[in-house]
Structure formats: structure tokens, C-alpha cells
């Protein structure tokens, strides 16, 4: 095991990085998410569909990281990233179990359990929060509180497909937009705009009888190195700010942050100083 050895510290349960199949990162499920055939804290594969169940969602989680070779389908991953700037591909696909939800109720992103270090607080922090939320309607940008979070409306994802069971996308190398069962949108851009604003997204109900496929990707968040990258080659190392926490990707309810799915992405630099055996 790596230091620290405090049983209350989630890092203490991680195996030594020398055993990680995707070193320098380690993917595992949050305790509130049941993964078929896996024990709590077990390493999960990148580039492979992971079956999951939680209280209000069941389906699969699929994550690719640029620069991290998957255990299977390395050619598929190489083809997916070829010619693209994005650093990751996230796919969440499945059925919701609660029939009272609308698109305004569901968000994707990160939620942390304690304060982040080295982020602006006070008046500066409030100004940053207002600015980000003003230019990105529907986003929850709160990196300054006791429970920091960055969450985006699920309807603003890059690709959305709504299908009858058995007709959902199977090939994640090329997911097509399909919203005929949800509503009429003139373009993907219009769909993202309408479903990102809570006031309009609340008119689009979630149907528990259909399969929803959400694809998200980004060219600034580099999970493989734990850096946030900006225009001009500038980047910020997130490990010091995380202060021993992992990055994560999950899906939640907006009102009370009920977890539908959450997967932790640890980096070996975040687990403390380790000595290879």
C-alpha cells in the first residue's frame, strides 16, 4: 500500500501504483455505485463498457483517456483520438428509474468532499463564480465551498441519443446524434442550448422506458496527467489543489446531488510518496 495509512483516507485503500493496470491513473467506482462483478475499490478498465447500478440509474460507464493505453481495442482508441484535440471521451448510457425527472434535474461532472487548496475565495471567488455561470447557463461552478463542485447540464453534452431498448448505440467510436424520441431540434447546437438552460430543459421529461446515451469530451481537462490546459499552452497542475483527493466523473441530481453514477480517477502523484517494492 501507499502512504498515508490512515484508514479514513481513501488513498490508504489503493494498491501500490506499480500494480495499476493503467499507471499513472487508477479508475474505480464510488461506494454508492454498484459495478457488476467488482468489489469496492477494485481497479476498473479504461476503454471498456462498465455495467453499473445505483438507486435511480442503471446502465454503463465508458471512459477513454488520451495517452493511456486500454487493455482492449487499442486500435479503436487510436482511431478515435486521431486528428482530434480532445483529452478524453466519456459515455454514460442507460435507463433512469425515477419517472419524475426532467433534463433540468440532471448534471454531469465532479463533486469533492472537502475544500480545494489554492483557489480564490471571498470577493474574487464570487466574481469568478458569477462570470463562469453567466457565460455557461445551467452550469454549477462552485470550487470555493466546503463541498466544491463543477457540474454541467446533461443535456448540453456533445452527443445525445434517445432510443428504445435494443436500439441504442453500441459502437462508441462514432456515436450519432438521435433526438427524434425527445423532441424536434433544428441542430445539435440548438439542442445543447435548449437543454442547458434549466428553464427550458425542465419541459423535457425523462422517460424511464427509453435508453439515454450521453457522450462528453473536452480539449482542456487532461485526466491522464491531472492538468487543466488553457489557450496558449498554459496549464495548471490540479494535484496540489486537490489535496489528496481524486478527480472524478459522475452524474447527479441538481437539487440534492443524489449520485446516479460516480467514478474516481486517481493519479499516482496524488496518493502520497510511494517507494516501488
Detailed description of the structure:
This protein has 277 residues and is of the alpha+beta class. Helices cover 14% and strands 29% of the residues. It has 5 helices and 15 strands. The strands form 3 sheets. It has a 6-stranded antiparallel beta sheet with strand order 1-15-14-6-8-7. A 6-stranded antiparallel beta sheet has the order 2-3-4-5-10-9, with no helix packed on it. Strand 7 (140-142) and strand 8 (149-153) form a beta hairpin. The longest helix is centred in the middle third of the chain and has 14 residues, at 122-135. The protein is globular. 31% of the residues are buried. Mean pLDDT is 90; it is low at 1-7 and 273-277.
**Radius of gyration, taken over Cα atoms and rounded to an integer in Å:** 19 Å
Total number of beta strands: 15
Global outline: globular
How widely separated are the two ends?
Answer: 10 Å
Quaternary state of the chains: single chain
SS-based structural class? alpha+beta
> How would you write the strand order of the largest sheet?
1-15-14-6-8-7
- Spell the H/E element sequence: EEEEHEEHEEEHHEEEEHEE
Biggest beta sheet summary = 6 strands, antiparallel
Characteristic terms for this protein:
about 280 residues; alpha+beta; 6-stranded antiparallel β-sheet; 5 helices; about 30% strand; disordered C terminus
